[in-house]
Predict the structure.
Amino acid sequence: MAEFASGWLYEAGIGENRALRLENGDLAQVRVERAGASARAGAVLDAKFTRQWVAGKSGIVTLPGGQEALLQPLPDGLTEGAMVRVEIVRAAMTERGGQAKRAKARPAEPDRPAGEGPDLLAEISASGLPVRQVHTHEDDVFAQHGWHEAIEQAESGRIDFAGGSLLLSLTPAMTVIDVDGPLPPFELAKRATREIALALVRFDIGGNIGVDFPTLEAKAERNVVATLFDENMTGNCERTAINGFGFMQIVRRKARPSLPEIMQANRAINAALKLLRQSERDRGTGALCLTVHPAVANKLTAPLLEELAKRTGRSVSLEPRGEIAIEGGLIG
């Protein structure tokens, strides 16, 4: 992989596709796409107008698969029960704790061709960067470039750096990033700017973002910190100034759930997909027995296990055991 220092690595997994972007050999961005996810951003679909949401301004439409989306603005003369062609501008999300958030849609031109929108491979292929597909019989280049560490950060919401840490908190209104550490406030804030900018791009964090820096009383210091953020931020965004309490708001386009939103939605699903990846890469022979927590066993559906058997050429069985931790599945 020495010759592949910049571009996308792509892995078509069982139940989950994964992509990792490298810049000069360093991990720059991580994306995951899970099977059975909602309508993708960019999809153009014929939907049924179900009901008004805000009279005359927005409403609820039902997509072909039964999923609901929030349509805004409403086309003139649209009546309940009528069909309308829509474009998905933000995929549906599942917030921490299982609360569902509808997809967002806008009216599409009636003659615009319908389509499901680009999947992960199509998106990264359209980026203009090289794409290298990774296979399970090869070395685990994802792991070699920090995949597991990035996933752990997304799951925990904690990112440590020299002299401090960032804590990402997901709320319905915004992603809040708290800066903490023992350094003097100005030095801590300066060091944090680079880590914040990297994290926003690495984890595909969009929408409303609030950053809680340590309090900086001097306006000149606040301006220095804001300028450092701008210098390190490679993605498109808008931001406010840092106020006297150390708070800065950032707004970025949001077309899909961020990696922390995906990874913090359901621990059992994470554990199931991680075990499937490990099992597919297992170099053993003979039958595969997956010993897992019952909650994980419920996520390892028959189609997933059948795909594992197909890819490995081995029979697969499942043994739920209550004493095993959710993240502690065993391959035997």
